[in-house]
Specification:
Strand order of the largest sheet: 2-3-4-5-6-7-8-9
Order of helices and strands: EHHEHEHEHEHEHEHEHHEH
Length: about 375
């Protein structure tokens, strides 16, 4: 893994510069049928790396990106070059709305919809069903490429809800939004029961902060055949910020994510449907978070899209000195830095502001007039 800084223009994907349509119904797929997948046997979904520190031996040379493909996405939204990580999966491009979006060459903005009473920023704002659905429509109107619906707060110190409570929070909202917006829906969950019910309700992507390590989660994701985002987290939310320690945070996170990608492939999941997230704020000090952001380009050679969740987090507050309600500017600045270092999916509270900064970055980096 190199220690050199990133080269210019490493964001690698196009970025949306105009609002997506939001009034037509989504192309809701039928309930996914179980797929016959090699190796999806019981017992293959647990992984011993949870919360462990990974050694830095065998460090690989990452971050040397080589040539970039000049393939562009001329859908009227502006563009950046596609990184040389191989073409998107044809299966991913053809299967579900979320997979089709991920298979494009555009940078993507994923709007956050927390239907929880205790999330760090918007906890309690959208626990009412009508308020949650209205906010989802607002996110779509601002131009989100994805909407991530979550019913479990994973802020530091949080305890998980019951499965029944999580289902009651997310399933009705997903069901309603799948009929009223054209934006693909993701479910932010680690539980196989919630994955299945959310997919039946209309979710076409899974975003898992535990990287499919709960019992049954890997098998459920393989069965559903949906795109999955695999995130790094050291420990569990209720204790993850209690003195997190790494041998080398960049190496350890990269190796963890590489192993989770291999675990998914072993049960027949298509690498073209996988996304990784380094997990800013999940078992990491401020120094860990800043170094991960500084050296995010080291994850590019994993060969899949990189999602980042920096929006309004404690690291932004620590740097700016602002409370959570005042962190929008710092958050979009962090998103721009992440884009320059290889991120291409941005999980944010401030959809319109993030789209704007990415559109300006695209125009400057590639000397193109905004469409």
């Amino acid at each position: 893994m190199t220690r050199s800084g990133p080269s210019r223009s490493t964001s690698g994907f196009t970025t949306s510069a105009t609002s997506a349509p939001t009034t037509s119904p989504a192309h809701r797929s039928a309930s996914p049928s179980p797929a016959s997948k090699p190796g999806a046997a019981a017992g293959s979904d647990e992984h011993p790396m949870a919360g462990q520190v990974i050694g830095s031996a065998g460090r690989t040379e990452l971050g040397r990106r080589g040539n970039q493909s000049e393939r562009v996405d001329r859908d009227g939204r502006g563009w950046l070059p596609l990184p040389a990580t191989g073409p998107p999966s044809t299966r991913a491009a053809a299967s579900t709305p979320a997979a089709a979006v991920l298979a494009s060459s555009r940078a993507l903005v994923c709007g956050i919809l927390n239907v929880t009473p205790d999330s760090f920023y918007d906890g309690g704002r959208y626990t009412d069903y009508a308020a949650a659905v209205e906010h989802g429509r607002r996110i779509a109107a601002e131009g989100a490429d994805l909407i991530d619906v979550g019913g479990e707060s994973t802020r530091p110190g949080a305890r998980p809800p019951t499965v029944e409570d999580e289902l009651a929070r997310v399933v009705p909202v997903i069901e309603s939004l799948s009929r009223s917006v054209a934006v693909p829906l993701s479910v932010d969950t680690s539980r196989p029961e919630v994955m299945r019910e959310a997919a039946r309700a209309g979710a076409t992507m899974i975003n898992d902060v535990r990287a499919l390590r709960l019992p049954g989660a890997l098998a459920a994701a393989a069965e559903l055949d949906l795109p999955v985002c695999l995130m790094h987290m050291l420990g569990e939310p209720d204790r993850m910020q209690h003195h997190p320690v790494y041998n080398d945070v960049v190496v350890d996170v990269q190796q963890f994510l590489a192993e989770r990608l291999r675990a998914c492939e072993r049960v027949g999941m298509d690498r073209g449907q996988l996304v990784v997230d380094p997990g800013f704020g999940f078992g990491k000090t401020l120094d860990h978070n800043l170094r991960l952001l500084r050296e995010l380009h080291e994850l590019v050679e994993l060969g899949v899209r990189i999602m980042v969740g920096l929006s309004r987090k404690g690291m932004i507050g620590a740097v700016t000195g602002r409370p959570v309600d005042g962190r929008s500017t710092g958050s979009v600045a962090a998103a721009m830095i992440a884009a320059q270092r290889g991120a291409s999916v941005f999980r944010v509270h401030d959809v319109a502001a993030t789209r704007d900064v990415l559109a300006v970055l695209a125009a400057v980096e590639h000397h193109e007039e905004p469409p």
